[in-house]
Write a structure and sequence with these properties.
alpha/beta, 12 strands, Aspartate Aminotransferase, domain 2, 370 residues, 3-stranded antiparallel beta sheet, binds pyridoxal-5'-phosphate
Length: 370
């Protein structure tokens, strides 16, 4: 039996020769960064492709999150989810903000809007939800709560590239700011990279100053900014990736459809809801391993590993269990029962464009023969 390694994700790379034509342009311009031609072109093309008004590119998603918090002047306490990649909460700590974790909804695995109001303290200034696995948060309920309590909303949209809302418009138009990651493991990548999506020219100017040390012009520094700029090489790679993104998304959808067809009748396995699946970018394929499945989640993870298949337990452990967070009151198990349960059941299957039918059969066979 074929034993080649199957990874949870792999990037879709363009032909190297095609990338070379972009590199030749950069070599002849001798402009390597600081908002050059490639950077400007990628911001424009992303606005068009995503259906948003303003995009500010960054060197990675984490620096974009740090900067989004600064751009809105957020301080004090921020309500967030424990069920995410650790960078979500780290971006708060780096800004001297106390994260307040609220539990997630068992179906969407996103922040449960019914738990937000009771978590608001006098120091709360914002909500930072995550569109986990690219499935939309309850943007309407979260928007209503934010308005009622005058809170800002920053969506960590690292998983939500090209995802639409219920009206078929970009999900990234909701909240005050949305933050994307273009890390190598994401659906759309620039090796490393990220972006903030915003809705006014003034906010875009503020973000662009903050990512460039706070410079307004050659002699004026208006804020203690950071270096968050994306280089021309990364931006060029993004321009090339955008040309194939539709076929990448459709190949991912095919993989997800295959898994759904093959796994929906397996006892003890729970798939995510069909409705959110339809609007998803299929950036991940999460499964819940329930108590009536023949083996535990961790046993299944091991069995995959034994045959060179690398699944991932996203998101386990919860952010609230890491040492820099576990002393917080909101990190208690009693406060986060749903997230605690799902973190024990979750496993993400490999999903990317390089998987062929034989790979998929190998993966499904492991599950079916447990
Ligand atoms: C990937 C990711 C980030 C961080 O993005 P980087 O570009 O790797 O810095 C933040 N939040 C979530 C939910 C992520 O998955």
């Amino acid at each position: 039996m074929n034993n080649k390694p199957i990874y949870v994700t792999q990037p879709s790379l363009p032909l190297l020769a095609e990338f070379n034509t972009y590199l030749e342009k950069i070599w002849s311009s001798k402009i390597l960064t600081n908002g050059g031609e490639m950077h400007q072109a990628l911001e424009r093309e992303l606005c068009d492709y995503l259906g948003v008004e303003y995009v500010s590119l960054f060197n990675n998603g984490t620096i974009a999150l740090l900067t989004a918090i600064q751009a809105l002047g957020i301080k004090g306490d921020v309500i967030t989810t424990p069920y995410s990649f650790v960078a979500t909460a780290h971006s708060l700590l780096w800004n001297g903000i106390k994260p307040i974790f609220v539990d997630i909804d068992p179906i969407s695995m996103n922040m449960d809007p019914n738990k937000i109001e009771e978590a608001i303290t006098p120091a709360t200034t914002a909500i930072m939800p995550v569109h986990c696995y690219g499935n939309a948060c309850d943007i309407v309920a979260i928007g209503d709560i934010a308005r009622k309590h005058s809170l800002k909303v920053i969506y960590d949209a690292a998983h939500a590239f090209a995802v639409k809302d219920h009206d078929g418009r970009s999900l990234l138009n909701h909240g005050d700011l949305s933050v994307l990651s273009f890390h190598a493991t994401k659906v759309f990548n620039t090796f490393e990279g990220g972006a903030i999506v915003c809705r006014t020219k003034e906010m875009k100017a503020r973000i662009d100053q903050l990512k460039n040390f706070g410079f307004v012009d050659e002699v004026t520094v208006a804020a203690p900014g950071i270096n968050g700029k994306m280089s021309e090489v990364n931006a060029a790679f993004g321009l090339l990736q955008l040309k194939t993104i539709d076929s990448v998304l459709s190949k991912r959808k095919n993989v997800a459809c295959y898994y759904r067809a093959e796994l929906s009748d397996v006892k003890g396995i729970k798939l995510t809801e069909q409705a959110s699946f339809e609007r998803s970018n299929n950036s991940y394929f999460p499964l819940l391993i329930m108590s009536d499945f023949p083996v535990s989640r961790d046993e299944l993870y091991q069995r995959f590993k034994e045959v060179n298949i690398f699944s991932r337990r996203y998101f386990y452990p919860l952010i609230s269990d890491f040492p820099m967070y576990n002393h917080l009151e909101s990190s208690s198990k009693q406060n986060l029962p749903v997230a605690g349960e799902i973190a024990k059941q979750i496993i993400c299957l490999p999903i990317h464009t390089e998987l062929d039918l034989e790979d998929l059969e190998r993966i499904v066979t492991v599950i079916r023969t447990c």
